[in-house]
Automatic annotation (TrEMBL), chain A:
Signal peptide: none annotated. Residues 59-527 form the Aldehyde dehydrogenase domain. PANTHER family: ALDEHYDE DEHYDROGENASE-RELATED. The active site is at residue 304. Residues 12-25 have a biased composition (Polar residues). Keywords: NAD, Oxidoreductase. It comes from the Eukaryota. This is Aldehyde dehydrogenase 1 family member A1. Residues 1-11 have a biased composition (Basic and acidic residues). Residues 1-44 are annotated as: Disordered. InterPro entries: Ald_DH/histidinol_DH, Ald_DH_C, Ald_DH_CS_CYS, Ald_DH_CS_GLU, Ald_DH_N, Aldehyde_DH_dom. One of its GO terms (molecular function) is oxidoreductase activity, acting on the aldehyde or oxo group of donors, NAD or NADP as acceptor.
Automatic annotation (TrEMBL), chain B:
Belongs to the aldehyde dehydrogenase family. It comes from the Eukaryota. One of its GO terms (molecular function) is aldehyde dehydrogenase (NAD+) activity. Residues 46-509 form the Aldehyde dehydrogenase domain. This is aldehyde dehydrogenase (NAD(+)). Keywords: NAD, Oxidoreductase. Pfam families: Aldedh (PF00171). The active site is at 286. Its EC number is 1.2.1.3. The keyword Membrane does not apply. InterPro entries: Ald_DH/histidinol_DH (IPR016161), Ald_DH_C (IPR016163), Ald_DH_CS_CYS (IPR016160), Ald_DH_CS_GLU (IPR029510), Ald_DH_N (IPR016162), Aldehyde_DH_dom (IPR015590).
Length: 536, 518
């Protein structure tokens, strides 16, 4: 998320953009010394301390005795085995979360400011373990270590701190009610209460960051949580569980149950005693979650789903900058972003030059072991994703797009795919319609503002969009016309804890981050008291 | 004040023994804490006064000089304003800093104060005379909480986008006002500093703060922590000095964009005038009070007596929100007075470093004399002195806990702010009567009502003209809840989200667009 490097106090990063991590100055969270710092290095042979289910602040084996094998996608090697939660374990976790949510429990009777303080303490612990967590994240998900360190970990810490600050600022209101009757006088106020037990199901592309996005607003509002990390990437979430306990959250407030979607995830979304479910993942599974809520107890649902995000580049923009932004907007995190700018619409006069430079930029990418310095693209997460991406690349070729570079697997082992650029892509091709979730860039040509708005919006997704232009009228016209939860003007992937995130249409339901996310984790109670006489 | 902290800091104590501290929970104080800083803090540097002048700061428990402190006057204020102005220029490190990082610095400051709580509590007691146990369990934790609270606001103080008519796009930016002059009193030196710095810094202003000449020491130590945690130069400047010189220079300075003052109503008038005759700087004022505390006959007697005692005597009676007009319903009046006298007689007055002490000395000779003068006027005007009324020690500024019964609304002690350990108990018959009498004052800071009846509670709390109303409690403060006065008790609100308004300029930006769409 805040992929924007922090603007250091003395030196401005003039590109105002993201992901070009190693050559930016990063102020440490503790100070603001400008200048170069030695780049962080991964922890060699990091210990994997936590492999069990975390319920009631204790480590549990799964009821079934089954385990999930966890692999390093860069090598295919088995890292460890983790306890596999299914319905029975979810049941235990929900009971624990429900107990923690009882009236009069330590968690319910805690001062809101103390909830905030616990979140701040958790942020401090994440900061303390930042190298280890970034290493685990890189090993487990295949993402580039420096990205994990600078983007994922920074975002995690900042999100926890941000919501730490909200805890005692979630205000109800007093409301001047009246029914017009002379003898009825009332005093009305609202309380913003936590919803209760929240099921949270998170994906594998940003395991730690998604964990923070989910638990931080939930906890700051006073809910309790049963969270299921993805089966591909449970390790950082389990380390977080240990930190949650260390920070001093009462037992049962957060329960972490690694497992598969069809079993543990399904149990959460169908559970009659879960009051709310939040899911980040594919649109296909998002539909299942919504259905499960309808089939069970009408639990509240928030969804953050897929995208096929338009990134619109006008001829009047700063070309070099736009090429770089469009490149990182797609290739960041091996293309495994719901936000990926996977439909790059380029205005006709600069189309060929844009394609040429984008290909050049894609060819310069360094693939390899994500723990090594200098590498800027790691492997895809697993064989299934790898196969899907390769199949879509084939469809692109078959349907007549021009393969400008890449298009094949890379290396002797691991799940690497060459950075791939397609030009002459038309809107009806599968690669222009389906979410690829891999390092495959589609570049299309457009002629008019009106045309590009129509084409950009012609999708059932509506997550994010970008527009590059120096013309203020174009910028404002396009940004207000795009059907997307986030629109970036002359930047891409510029996210921060303060700014809401979520999708129009089938990209989701509700918003995460910012003040808006608090609504997703609160029930409003209006209390009305009869009084003897009203006065203004 | 800040009742909530008592119960949090000292769990297990009954509400009636809030002033009896458990020695185990509080570290033993060093009764001679070393003074590390006694100069002006400008641009993150320690400086002597331009004039070279110093003044003595006194230990009110003994009347002895603790040390000399550099005395700021107009020339120093000028230097500090220049530093603050420079720190506020466009493109400065402070202006370019992420809002979240401002918040992080405030959190770090809170952490550093928490780390040094024992020392700061000792220093506060030495300089101000308040019981160390109170400084440690009330003032310090609330300082930390206030800073943490505003740390959280730094990146949540959001402007809006606004659907104005026409083909326009309109949004607001919440910008800092600029250089803020802040003048704080001696009764809660650290806490008032935090109340002022928290919102000003969270919103991105720079500060020139004048601390009271009676109690400059803890503020200067906090200045060192401000530097330690990494606030850029010039963001906070702290000047010990006198009101008529340094305070006046701030209030009339043409380059100070806003002034916030906590202190007497008399000086509040001067501040407002100075703004009017200089640059119309924004003014917020937290001033005096003569706060009514209304006890209905259905209240829990024991609790109401204890709360009313606390409401008045807390901090040696040196609270702007002191419940200094205790209105008691006629049918319980005599018993209430009797029990209040009993409670006042039990009040432990003495060495503020002693953990058993509930009441230390008044802050200085001037206040001491003024309070004794009010006690004389009470006797002269016919109130019934039920206990106390005299000096409590042969050195230092100690005054006996004093209770007056049969007080009438027109007596001086029922109209003027005494700011000392002198309780006035008045009698009333009906709700309508007591609301009218309670509101018959130029002040409007705080008020309380004690009753079990929900209708009466709502009636009285709605009818009182006061910025804060407590029901079945008193002096309950939280950083989250706004505090400030109606009428001559002030202007604006501190704490809570409301406190941010006083440190913000709203800028409306309107952009022409080719075509508007919803």
């Amino acid at each position: 998320m805040n992929s924007q490097p922090d603007n250091d106090h003395q030196q401005q990063s003039d590109n105002g953009c993201n992901h070009q991590i190693p050559n930016q100055n990063h102020k440490s969270e503790h100070g603001d010394r400008p200048g170069m710092q030695a780049l962080p290095m991964p922890v060699p042979d990091p210990p994997i301390q936590y492999t069990k289910l975390f319920i009631s602040n204790e480590w549990h084996e799964s009821c079934s005795g089954r385990k999930i094998p966890v692999y390093n996608p860069a090598t295919g090697e088995l890292l460890c085995e983790v306890e596999e939660a299914d319905a029975e374990d979810v049941e235990k976790a929900v009971r624990s979360a429900r107990a923690a949510f009882q009236m009069g429990s330590p968690w319910r009777s805690m001062d809101a400011s103390d909830r905030g303080h616990l979140l701040n303490r958790l942020a401090d612990l994440v900061e303390r373990d930042r190298l280890l967590l970034a290493t685990l994240e890189a090993l487990d998900s295949g993402k580039v270590f420096l990205m994990a360190y600078f983007v994922d970990l920074m975002a995690t810490i900042k999100t926890l701190r941000y919501y730490g600050g909200w805890a005692d600022k979630i205000h109800g209101k007093t409301i001047p009610v009246g029914d017009g009757q002379r003898y009825c006088h009332y005093f009305t106020y609202t309380r913003h209460e936590p919803i209760g037990v929240c099921g949270q199901i998170i994906p594998w592309n940003f395991p730690l960051m998604m964990f923070a996005w989910k638990i931080a607003p939930a906890l700051c509002c006073g809910n309790t949580v049963v969270i299921k990390p993805a089966e591909q990437t449970p390790l950082s979430a389990l380390h977080m569980a240990a930190l949650i306990k260390e920070a001093g959250f009462p037992p049962g407030v957060v329960n972490v149950v690694p497992g598969y979607g069809q079993t543990a995830g399904c149990a959460i979304s169908h559970h009659m005693d879960i009051d709310k479910v939040a899911f980040t993942g594919s649109t296909a599974v998002g539909k299942l979650i919504q259905k499960a809520a309808g089939d069970s107890n009408l639990k509240r649902v928030t969804l953050e789903l897929g995208g096929k995000n338009p990134n619109i580049v006008f001829a009047d923009c700063d070309l070099e900058y736009a090429v770089e932004q469009a490149h990182s907007g797609l290739f960041f995190n091996q293309g495994q972003c719901c936000l990926a700018g996977s439909r790059v619409f380029v205005e006709e006069p600069i189309y060929e030059e844009f394609v040429r430079r984008s290909v050049e930029r894609a060819r310069s990418k360094v693939l390899g072991n994500p723990l090594l310095p200098g590498v800027d693209q790691g492997p895809q997460i697993d064989q299934k994703q790898f196969n899907k991406i390769m199949e879509l690349i084939e469809s692109g070729k078959r349907e007549g797009a021009t393969l400008e570079c890449g298009g094949s697997p890379w290396g002797q082992q691991g799940l690497f795919i060459q950075p791939t650029v397609f030009s002459n892509v038309t809107d009806d091709m599968r690669i222009a319609k389906e979410e690829i979730f891999g390092p495959v860039q589609q570049i299309m040509c457009f002629r008019s503002v009106h045309e590009v708005i129509q084409r950009a919006n012609a999708t059932h997704y509506g997550l994010a969009a970008g527009v590059f232009t120096n013309d203020i009228d174009k910028a404002l016209t396009v940004s207000s016309a795009l059907q997307a939860g986030m629109v970036w003007v002359n930047c891409y992937n510029a996210m921060s804890a303060q700014c809401p995130f979520g999708g129009f249409k089938m990209s989701g339901n509700g918003r995460e981050l910012g003040e808006y996310a608090l609504q997703e984790y609160t029930e409003v109670k209006a209390v009305t008291i009869k009084i003897s006489q009203k006065n203004s | 004040m800040l009742r909530t902290v008592f119960s949090r800091a000292l769990p297990g104590l009954s509400r009636l023994s809030v002033c009896h501290y458990s020695a185990a929970a509080i570290p033993a104080p060093n009764i001679q804490p070393e003074v590390h800083y006694n100069k002006l803090f400008i641009n993150n540097q320690w400086q002597d006064a331009v004039s070279g002048k110093t003044f003595p700061t006194i230990n009110p428990a003994t009347g002895e000089v603790i040390c000399q402190v550099a005395e700021a006057d107009e020339a120093d204020v000028d230097k500090a304003v220049k530093a603050a102005h420079n720190a506020f220029r466009l493109g400065s490190p402070w202006r370019r800093m992420d809002a979240s990082h401002r918040g992080l610095l405030l959190n770090r400051l809170a952490d550093a104060i928490e780390r040094d709580s024992t020392y700061l509590a000792e220093l506060e007691t030495l300089d101000n005379g308040k019981p160390y146990a109170v400084a440690y369990t009330v003032d310090l934790p609330n300082v930390v909480k206030c800073l943490r609270y505003y740390a959280g606001w730094a990146d949540k103080w959001e402007g809006k986008t606004i659907p104005i008519d026409g083909d326009y796009f309109c949004y607001t930016r919440h910008e800092p006002i600029g250089v803020c002059g802040q003048i704080i009193p001696w009764n809660f030196p650290l806490l008032m500093q935090a109340w002022k710095l928290g919102p000003a810094l969270a919103t991105g202003n720079t500060v020139v703060m004048k601390v009271a000449e009676q109690t400059p020491l803890t503020a200067l130590y906090v200045a060192s922590l401000i530097k330690e945690v990494g606030f850029p130069e010039g963001v906070v400047n702290i000047l010990p000095g006198m009101g008529p010189s340094a305070g006046a220079a701030i209030a009339k300075h043409m380059d100070v964009d806003k002034v916030a003052f906590t202190g007497s109503t008399e000086v509040g008038h001067l501040i407002q005038q100075a703004s009017g005759s200089s640059n119309l700087k924004k003014v917020t004022l937290e001033l005096g009070g003569k706060s009514p505390n209304i006890i209905l006959s259905d209240a829990n007697m024991e609790d109401a007596v204890e709360q009313s005692h606390f409401a008045l005597f807390f901090n040696q009676g040196q609270c702007c929100c002191a419940g200094s007009r205790t209105y008691v319903q006629a049918d319980i009046y005599d018993e209430f007075v009797e029990r209040s006298v009993e409670r006042a007689k039990r009040r432990v007055v003495g060495n503020p470093f002693d953990l058993k002490t509930e009441q230390g000395p008044q802050v200085d000779q001037e206040q001491f004399n003024k309070i004794l003068g009010y006690i004389s006027s009470g006797k002269r005007e016919g109130a019934k002195l039920m206990c106390g009324g005299g000096v409590a020690a042969d050195r230092g500024y100690f005054i006996q806990p004093t209770v007056f019964g049969d007080v009438q609304d027109n007596m001086t002690i029922a109209r003027e702010e005494i700011f000392g350990p002198v309780m006035q108990i008045l009698k009333f018959k009906s709700l309508e009567e007591v609301v009218t009498r309670a509101n018959d004052t130029k002040y409007g800071l705080a008020a309380a009502v004690f009753t079990k009846d929900i209708d009466k509670a709502n009636y009285v709390s709605n009818g009182l003209r006061a910025g804060t109303v407590w029901i079945n409690c008193y002096d309950v403060f939280g950083a989250q809840a706004p505090f400030g006065g109606y009428k001559a008790s002030g202007n604006g609100r501190e704490l809570g989200e409301y406190g941010l308004d006083n440190y913000t300029e709203v800028k409306t930006v309107t952009i022409k667009v080719p075509q508007k769409n919803s």
